[in-house]
Model the fold of this input.
Amino acid sequence: MSKTILTAVSLLMWTISWGQNNETSEPQNDFKLVGDVISFPLTIVNAFPFISGEINGVKGKFMFDTGNQDALEINNNIIPLLSQQEKGNGQVGSGQKFKTYINDNIEDVKLINGLHFRNLKQIPSGNYDFLQNDITPDCIGYIGHDFFNGYLFKLDYTKRKLTFYKNSPKRESSKDFLVGEKVVAILNFEIRNLPNHPTIRVKVKDVEIQAFFDTGSYGSLELTDKDSKKLKKQKYLINYGQDGYSEELLVLNNVRINAQLTANFIGIYEHGDSKYLRKALGITEDNYLSIAYRFLANYKTVWDYRHKKIYVLEY
Done:
Protein backbone atom coordinates (compact mmCIF):
# COMPACT_ATOMS: atom_id res chain seq x y z
CA MET A 1 0.00 0.00 0.00
CA SER A 2 1.36 3.46 -0.87
CA LYS A 3 0.20 7.08 -0.87
CA THR A 4 -3.01 6.71 1.04
CA ILE A 5 -5.60 9.43 1.56
CA LEU A 6 -7.66 10.02 4.69
CA THR A 7 -11.36 9.35 4.40
CA ALA A 8 -14.19 7.83 6.40
CA VAL A 9 -16.98 5.80 4.87
CA SER A 10 -19.78 3.95 6.50
CA LEU A 11 -19.94 0.22 6.05
CA LEU A 12 -22.08 -0.50 3.01
CA MET A 13 -24.90 -2.96 3.41
CA TRP A 14 -24.96 -5.59 0.71
CA THR A 15 -27.40 -8.33 -0.11
CA ILE A 16 -25.29 -11.45 0.18
CA SER A 17 -25.10 -13.05 -3.22
CA TRP A 18 -23.49 -16.44 -3.62
CA GLY A 19 -21.50 -16.85 -6.82
CA GLN A 20 -21.87 -19.88 -9.04
CA ASN A 21 -21.04 -23.10 -7.24
CA ASN A 22 -20.28 -21.53 -3.85
CA GLU A 23 -20.22 -24.96 -2.31
CA THR A 24 -20.35 -24.50 1.42
CA SER A 25 -21.13 -22.18 4.27
CA GLU A 26 -19.84 -24.66 6.84
CA PRO A 27 -17.08 -23.14 8.98
CA GLN A 28 -13.57 -23.90 7.69
CA ASN A 29 -10.44 -24.08 9.85
CA ASP A 30 -8.04 -22.84 7.19
CA PHE A 31 -8.30 -19.30 5.80
CA LYS A 32 -8.40 -20.27 2.14
CA LEU A 33 -11.04 -20.15 -0.55
CA VAL A 34 -13.47 -23.04 -0.87
CA GLY A 35 -15.59 -23.65 -3.97
CA ASP A 36 -15.33 -23.38 -7.73
CA VAL A 37 -16.51 -19.83 -8.52
CA ILE A 38 -16.75 -17.43 -5.58
CA SER A 39 -17.75 -13.75 -5.73
CA PHE A 40 -17.39 -10.91 -3.27
CA PRO A 41 -18.96 -7.44 -3.36
CA LEU A 42 -16.30 -4.79 -2.90
CA THR A 43 -16.28 -1.48 -1.09
CA ILE A 44 -13.90 0.91 -2.87
CA VAL A 45 -12.37 3.52 -0.58
CA ASN A 46 -10.39 5.93 -2.76
CA ALA A 47 -8.09 3.55 -4.63
CA PHE A 48 -8.44 0.57 -2.37
CA PRO A 49 -10.72 -2.49 -2.67
CA PHE A 50 -12.14 -3.83 0.60
CA ILE A 51 -14.06 -6.97 1.54
CA SER A 52 -16.45 -6.55 4.46
CA GLY A 53 -16.49 -9.05 7.29
CA GLU A 54 -15.90 -9.55 10.98
CA ILE A 55 -13.39 -11.04 13.39
CA ASN A 56 -14.60 -12.43 16.72
CA GLY A 57 -17.78 -10.37 16.33
CA VAL A 58 -16.04 -7.09 15.49
CA LYS A 59 -17.27 -5.85 12.11
CA GLY A 60 -15.15 -3.96 9.61
CA LYS A 61 -13.36 -4.21 6.29
CA PHE A 62 -10.36 -6.16 5.02
CA MET A 63 -8.16 -4.56 2.38
CA PHE A 64 -7.80 -6.90 -0.60
CA ASP A 65 -4.11 -6.34 -1.27
CA THR A 66 -2.27 -8.48 -3.81
CA GLY A 67 0.92 -6.89 -2.52
CA ASN A 68 0.43 -8.83 0.73
CA GLN A 69 1.44 -12.49 0.58
CA ASP A 70 -0.27 -13.68 3.78
CA ALA A 71 -3.80 -15.03 3.49
CA LEU A 72 -4.96 -13.01 6.49
CA GLU A 73 -3.41 -10.34 8.69
CA ILE A 74 -5.31 -8.77 11.58
CA ASN A 75 -5.20 -5.16 12.78
CA ASN A 76 -4.66 -5.52 16.52
CA ASN A 77 -5.41 -1.83 17.00
CA ILE A 78 -9.10 -2.72 16.51
CA ILE A 79 -9.36 -6.43 17.27
CA PRO A 80 -8.58 -7.41 20.91
CA LEU A 81 -6.00 -10.22 20.76
CA LEU A 82 -4.99 -11.49 24.18
CA SER A 83 -2.43 -14.16 23.32
CA GLN A 84 -0.22 -12.55 20.69
CA GLN A 85 3.39 -13.70 20.49
CA GLU A 86 5.84 -11.12 19.20
CA LYS A 87 7.47 -12.24 15.95
CA GLY A 88 9.54 -9.31 14.69
CA ASN A 89 9.19 -6.14 12.68
CA GLY A 90 7.23 -5.43 9.51
CA GLN A 91 7.09 -2.73 6.89
CA VAL A 92 4.78 -1.91 3.98
CA GLY A 93 5.86 -0.59 0.59
CA SER A 94 4.91 2.98 1.51
CA GLY A 95 7.31 2.90 4.44
CA GLN A 96 5.18 2.44 7.59
CA LYS A 97 6.84 0.16 10.16
CA PHE A 98 5.22 -1.91 12.89
CA LYS A 99 5.80 -4.86 15.20
CA THR A 100 4.48 -8.21 13.98
CA TYR A 101 2.83 -10.91 16.07
CA ILE A 102 1.56 -14.47 15.69
CA ASN A 103 -1.72 -15.71 17.17
CA ASP A 104 -2.14 -19.38 18.07
CA ASN A 105 -5.89 -19.26 17.56
CA ILE A 106 -8.43 -16.86 16.04
CA GLU A 107 -11.87 -18.06 17.04
CA ASP A 108 -14.14 -16.70 14.33
CA VAL A 109 -13.88 -14.90 10.97
CA LYS A 110 -16.83 -14.22 8.67
CA LEU A 111 -16.82 -12.65 5.21
CA ILE A 112 -19.67 -10.78 3.57
CA ASN A 113 -20.47 -13.49 1.00
CA GLY A 114 -21.10 -16.09 3.71
CA LEU A 115 -17.70 -17.77 3.97
CA HIS A 116 -17.07 -18.65 7.60
CA PHE A 117 -13.85 -19.68 9.34
CA ARG A 118 -13.28 -20.90 12.88
CA ASN A 119 -10.27 -21.70 15.07
CA LEU A 120 -7.66 -20.41 12.65
CA LYS A 121 -4.08 -21.22 13.64
CA GLN A 122 -0.88 -19.17 13.40
CA ILE A 123 -2.48 -15.95 12.12
CA PRO A 124 -0.26 -12.85 11.91
CA SER A 125 -1.25 -9.48 13.34
CA GLY A 126 0.13 -5.99 13.75
CA ASN A 127 -0.83 -2.43 14.59
CA TYR A 128 -2.12 -1.10 11.28
CA ASP A 129 -3.35 2.20 12.64
CA PHE A 130 -1.95 3.87 9.50
CA LEU A 131 -4.69 2.12 7.51
CA GLN A 132 -7.29 3.48 9.93
CA ASN A 133 -5.85 6.98 9.89
CA ASP A 134 -5.16 7.27 6.17
CA ILE A 135 -7.88 5.17 4.52
CA THR A 136 -10.82 4.00 6.62
CA PRO A 137 -11.21 3.78 10.42
CA ASP A 138 -12.84 0.33 10.34
CA CYS A 139 -10.00 -1.51 8.57
CA ILE A 140 -9.63 -4.77 10.50
CA GLY A 141 -6.82 -6.25 8.43
CA TYR A 142 -5.60 -7.53 5.09
CA ILE A 143 -6.63 -10.37 2.80
CA GLY A 144 -3.72 -11.36 0.57
CA HIS A 145 -2.34 -13.78 -1.98
CA ASP A 146 -2.33 -17.03 -0.01
CA PHE A 147 -6.08 -16.76 0.57
CA PHE A 148 -6.72 -17.37 -3.13
CA ASN A 149 -3.70 -19.52 -4.01
CA GLY A 150 -4.88 -22.02 -6.64
CA TYR A 151 -7.43 -19.57 -8.07
CA LEU A 152 -7.41 -16.86 -10.71
CA PHE A 153 -9.51 -13.78 -10.16
CA LYS A 154 -11.41 -11.11 -12.07
CA LEU A 155 -11.32 -7.59 -10.62
CA ASP A 156 -14.03 -5.15 -11.69
CA TYR A 157 -13.91 -1.69 -10.08
CA THR A 158 -16.98 -0.43 -11.93
CA LYS A 159 -19.26 -3.24 -10.72
CA ARG A 160 -17.39 -3.33 -7.40
CA LYS A 161 -17.04 -7.08 -7.73
CA LEU A 162 -14.23 -9.60 -7.19
CA THR A 163 -14.70 -13.11 -8.60
CA PHE A 164 -12.41 -16.09 -8.06
CA TYR A 165 -12.23 -19.12 -10.37
CA LYS A 166 -10.56 -22.33 -9.25
CA ASN A 167 -7.74 -23.42 -11.52
CA SER A 168 -8.43 -26.67 -13.38
CA PRO A 169 -7.54 -28.26 -16.74
CA LYS A 170 -11.18 -27.84 -17.80
CA ARG A 171 -11.13 -24.11 -17.01
CA GLU A 172 -7.78 -23.69 -18.78
CA SER A 173 -9.45 -25.06 -21.91
CA SER A 174 -12.87 -23.39 -21.61
CA LYS A 175 -11.69 -20.01 -20.28
CA ASP A 176 -15.19 -19.46 -18.93
CA PHE A 177 -13.92 -16.39 -17.08
CA LEU A 178 -13.68 -14.66 -20.47
CA VAL A 179 -17.19 -15.48 -21.71
CA GLY A 180 -18.85 -12.27 -22.90
CA GLU A 181 -15.66 -10.24 -22.45
CA LYS A 182 -13.66 -8.25 -25.01
CA VAL A 183 -9.96 -8.88 -24.48
CA VAL A 184 -7.85 -5.76 -25.01
CA ALA A 185 -4.49 -7.36 -24.21
CA ILE A 186 -2.93 -10.46 -22.68
CA LEU A 187 0.12 -9.64 -20.57
CA ASN A 188 2.70 -12.35 -19.88
CA PHE A 189 4.40 -11.64 -16.58
CA GLU A 190 7.24 -13.04 -14.52
CA ILE A 191 7.62 -13.60 -10.79
CA ARG A 192 10.78 -12.71 -8.90
CA ASN A 193 11.31 -12.89 -5.14
CA LEU A 194 7.68 -13.04 -4.07
CA PRO A 195 4.89 -15.14 -5.66
CA ASN A 196 2.28 -12.38 -5.30
CA HIS A 197 4.01 -9.66 -7.37
CA PRO A 198 3.55 -10.00 -11.15
CA THR A 199 6.09 -7.93 -13.08
CA ILE A 200 6.47 -6.90 -16.72
CA ARG A 201 8.81 -4.65 -18.71
CA VAL A 202 7.21 -1.54 -20.23
CA LYS A 203 8.62 1.29 -22.34
CA VAL A 204 8.04 4.99 -22.82
CA LYS A 205 9.70 5.93 -26.10
CA ASP A 206 13.18 4.37 -25.58
CA VAL A 207 13.10 4.38 -21.77
CA GLU A 208 12.59 0.96 -20.20
CA ILE A 209 10.74 0.64 -16.89
CA GLN A 210 10.19 -2.44 -14.74
CA ALA A 211 6.54 -2.51 -13.66
CA PHE A 212 4.84 -4.44 -10.85
CA PHE A 213 1.08 -4.97 -10.38
CA ASP A 214 -0.51 -4.18 -7.01
CA THR A 215 -4.08 -3.56 -5.83
CA GLY A 216 -2.88 -1.77 -2.68
CA SER A 217 -1.69 1.47 -4.31
CA TYR A 218 -2.69 4.39 -6.51
CA GLY A 219 0.40 3.86 -8.66
CA SER A 220 3.88 5.27 -8.27
CA LEU A 221 6.99 5.93 -10.33
CA GLU A 222 10.73 6.07 -9.79
CA LEU A 223 13.04 7.18 -12.63
CA THR A 224 16.69 8.08 -12.89
CA ASP A 225 17.36 11.81 -13.14
CA LYS A 226 18.54 11.33 -16.71
CA ASP A 227 15.41 9.49 -17.84
CA SER A 228 13.12 11.83 -15.90
CA LYS A 229 14.60 14.88 -17.62
CA LYS A 230 14.42 13.18 -21.02
CA LEU A 231 10.75 12.23 -20.66
CA LYS A 232 9.81 15.65 -19.30
CA LYS A 233 11.51 17.33 -22.25
CA GLN A 234 9.56 15.09 -24.63
CA LYS A 235 6.29 15.74 -22.71
CA TYR A 236 5.86 12.08 -21.82
CA LEU A 237 6.29 12.89 -18.13
CA ILE A 238 4.26 15.85 -16.90
CA ASN A 239 3.79 17.45 -13.50
CA TYR A 240 0.06 17.22 -12.72
CA GLY A 241 -0.02 19.57 -9.74
CA GLN A 242 -0.92 18.70 -6.16
CA ASP A 243 -3.74 16.56 -4.88
CA GLY A 244 -6.04 17.73 -2.08
CA TYR A 245 -3.43 16.70 0.49
CA SER A 246 -0.60 18.73 -1.08
CA GLU A 247 1.19 15.73 -2.57
CA GLU A 248 2.67 16.07 -6.05
CA LEU A 249 1.08 14.12 -8.87
CA LEU A 250 2.55 13.00 -12.20
CA VAL A 251 1.27 11.96 -15.60
CA LEU A 252 3.21 9.32 -17.52
CA ASN A 253 2.01 9.20 -21.12
CA ASN A 254 2.35 6.70 -23.96
CA VAL A 255 3.39 3.73 -21.81
CA ARG A 256 3.78 0.77 -24.17
CA ILE A 257 2.64 -2.13 -22.03
CA ASN A 258 2.85 -4.66 -24.85
CA ALA A 259 2.20 -4.78 -28.60
CA GLN A 260 -1.55 -4.71 -27.97
CA LEU A 261 -1.80 -1.95 -25.40
CA THR A 262 -0.45 1.56 -24.79
CA ALA A 263 -1.81 3.56 -21.86
CA ASN A 264 -1.49 6.86 -20.01
CA PHE A 265 -1.00 6.86 -16.23
CA ILE A 266 -2.70 9.97 -14.87
CA GLY A 267 -2.33 11.02 -11.25
CA ILE A 268 0.44 8.72 -10.04
CA TYR A 269 2.95 9.60 -7.35
CA GLU A 270 6.70 9.77 -7.28
CA HIS A 271 7.87 6.85 -5.17
CA GLY A 272 9.74 7.71 -2.00
CA ASP A 273 12.51 5.66 -0.43
CA SER A 274 12.38 2.36 -2.31
CA LYS A 275 15.25 0.43 -0.70
CA TYR A 276 12.96 -1.89 1.27
CA LEU A 277 10.64 -2.43 -1.68
CA ARG A 278 13.49 -3.09 -4.12
CA LYS A 279 15.03 -5.70 -1.86
CA ALA A 280 11.71 -7.43 -1.16
CA LEU A 281 10.60 -7.57 -4.79
CA GLY A 282 13.98 -8.13 -6.41
CA ILE A 283 13.98 -4.90 -8.40
CA THR A 284 17.45 -4.43 -9.89
CA GLU A 285 16.45 -2.06 -12.68
CA ASP A 286 16.89 1.71 -12.23
CA ASN A 287 13.33 2.61 -13.28
CA TYR A 288 10.27 1.31 -11.45
CA LEU A 289 6.49 1.69 -11.99
CA SER A 290 3.66 0.43 -9.80
CA ILE A 291 0.71 -0.56 -12.02
CA ALA A 292 -2.17 -0.04 -9.63
CA TYR A 293 -5.48 1.79 -9.32
CA ARG A 294 -4.82 4.52 -11.89
CA PHE A 295 -4.52 1.79 -14.52
CA LEU A 296 -6.67 -0.97 -13.06
CA ALA A 297 -9.76 1.23 -12.65
CA ASN A 298 -9.87 1.74 -16.44
CA TYR A 299 -10.25 -1.96 -17.24
CA LYS A 300 -11.50 -5.22 -15.90
CA THR A 301 -8.52 -7.47 -15.27
CA VAL A 302 -8.11 -11.21 -14.82
CA TRP A 303 -5.04 -12.30 -12.85
CA ASP A 304 -3.94 -15.86 -13.63
CA TYR A 305 -0.91 -16.57 -11.45
CA ARG A 306 -0.63 -20.24 -12.45
CA HIS A 307 -0.12 -19.40 -16.12
CA LYS A 308 1.52 -16.03 -15.46
CA LYS A 309 -0.95 -14.01 -17.49
CA ILE A 310 -3.03 -10.91 -16.84
CA TYR A 311 -5.98 -10.41 -19.18
CA VAL A 312 -6.94 -6.78 -19.72
CA LEU A 313 -10.63 -6.51 -20.57
CA GLU A 314 -12.70 -3.66 -21.98
CA TYR A 315 -15.50 -2.16 -19.90
Observations:
- The radius of gyration is 19 Å.
- The mean pLDDT is 90.
- The chain is about 10% helix and 45% strand.
